[in-house]
Amino acid sequence: MKKLVILGGGESGVGTAILGKKQGFDVFLSDGGAVKPHYQEILNLNGIRWEQQQHTEAEILSAHVVMKSPGIPDKASIVQKIRESKIPVVSEIEFAIPYTNATIIAITGSNGKTTTTLLTYHLLKNGGLHVGLGGNIGKSFAWQVAEQDFDCYVLEVSSFQLDDSYTFKPHIAIITNLSPDHLDRYNYQYESYIASKFRITMNQSENDYLIYDADDETLVQFLSKIDTKATKIPFSITKPLPVGGTLNENTMKLKLNDDNFSIDTAHLALEGKHNVKNAMAATSVAMLMKIRKETIRESLSNFQGVEHRLEKVLKIQNVQYINDSKATNVNATFFALDSMTTPTVWIVGGVDKGNDYTELMALVREKVKAIICLGVDNRKIIDAFGNVVDVMVEVGSMQDAVRTAQRIAEKGDTVLLSPACASFDLFENYEDRGRQFKLAVQNL
Q: Does 129 share its domain with 255?
């Protein structure tokens, strides 16, 4: 009997354990931290051996294969020992893929991947397909492969998941865009991070598709250097293209094979130029999957959007409050500021991942009337924008940030939480930060 060891007892780890057990592996799950009670119960019910707060090396190093959860870095000593022992290390997606014949649609990129994934899923589900949603969001992909028999899956995949994938071959792959992110995991080598993203297309054949942003110079440049057999489908909001997605004034147009589709951007539920791109990517998939055009139009106009991503919270005294807590890097905040159409009070700050704020300068000059710094160390933000805006305030809690914003904002303004930073200094994660913002707004 082959032994499967799983590092990490979260959603992907427990899902992989269930699939491994079903496929006849001897399964052992090990988590250096605590396993949530809910997951403990599931592991026990399924008769899966597990440990927490430790890694028993004798157990782990006797594995035939190890599934490493994406949150565990390669630098971790246990991972290095596994690699030294020449035991194959795979991602959840790599482990699960041989056990399903479903059509796989996989989406990666630095920003926009969650929105694009959810929108694609929404289009396909409304189009009547029997479709699952997984990867970085929702229920574990491996778990769904074990317990449900979907015809296709829409998966959001991170560079970390792709790093440990070798045979993964999506029928349709999307790269939304590239910007420096998570560089701490790639020895601060942007090229290495980009190469990870492009692993999504490495096994694709002529019958598969790669959808990508043709306005992203880094992406286009890298694509010209690699050898992909996939049929390429670009999209652009700045230039005409013979095939793929384009924007003609206010009309989003798509041309695939001999098929054409168009919609007025006023009918898109999601606002902002970057969301036109997300809509182009998702619509390309829907067209390839032969969804009716009327259904695509309806679905694009009734999509609810993603929590913590340019989420409209409330309008109070004619001031719109927007939660964009998911903007954990400068590039994401660029999109948020770019889509503002009224004077903006901007709440920014957190754990800086080596941010360069210069690319935001023109937008801040044009749109931002006040900056509220919410972080333990705000030095870089103050240095960057201190001379650009009239009002700059430092606060120590979300409640203070929202109350201060309310005092500064006038009728017709927008208060935007778009931190451009990670959240671990004052919050558990970006969801916790977003929820605290919404609660503080509701309590005004």
A: yes
pLDDT digits (tens, 9 = 90+) for 27-45: 999 999 999 999 999 999 9
115 is in an annotated binding site: yes
Was 218 annotated as part of a binding site? no
- Judgement on whether residues 331 and 433 belong to the same structural domain of the protein: yes
What confidence tier does 114 reach under pLDDT thresholds 50, 70, 90? confident
Examine the fold and report which residue of 46, 66, 90 is the final residue of a domain before the chain moves on. 90
Q: Do 245 and 297 belong together in one domain? A: yes
Domain co-membership, 279 together with 401: no
What total number of domains does the chain contain? 3
Give tens-digit pLDDT for 165-184. 899 999 999 999 887 655 55
* Residue 109 marked in a binding site: yes
Residues 421, 437 within the same domain:
yes
The answer on whether 110 is annotated among ligand-binding residues is yes
Q: In terms of domains, do 295 and 385 share one?
A: no
Q: What is the pLDDT of residues 353-405, one digit of tens each?
A: 788 898 899 999 999 999 999 988 898 999 999 989 989 999 999 999 999 99
| 285, 302, 319 - which closes a domain | 302
> In whole angstroms, what is the distance from residue 34 CA to residue 249 CA?
53
Cα–Cα dist 206/423, whole Å: 42
- Establish whether 111 is an annotated binding residue: yes
Find how far residue 342's CA is from the centre of its chain: 27
Residues in CB range of 31: below 8 A, 6 or more apart: 7, 8, 9, 13, 50, 51, 52, 53
Residues 208 and 327 in one domain: no
The pLDDT of residue 349 is 92
The residue segments making up the domain with residue 23 are: 3-90
Neighbours of 250 (CB within 10 A): 11
Assess whether pLDDT exceeds 60 at residue 187. Answer: no
Q: What's the confidence (pLDDT) of residue 428?
A: 86
Domain with residue 116: its CATH number is 3.40.1190.10
* Cα distance between residue 401 and residue 427, in whole Å: 14
Instruction: Report pLDDT for 391.
Output: 93
CA-CA distances (angstroms) from residue 410 to 33, 53, 366, 405, 406?
Answer: 47, 51, 17, 10, 8
User: 113: annotated binding-site residue?
Assistant: yes
Please indicate, yes or no, whether residues 264 and 412 belong to a single structural domain of this protein: no
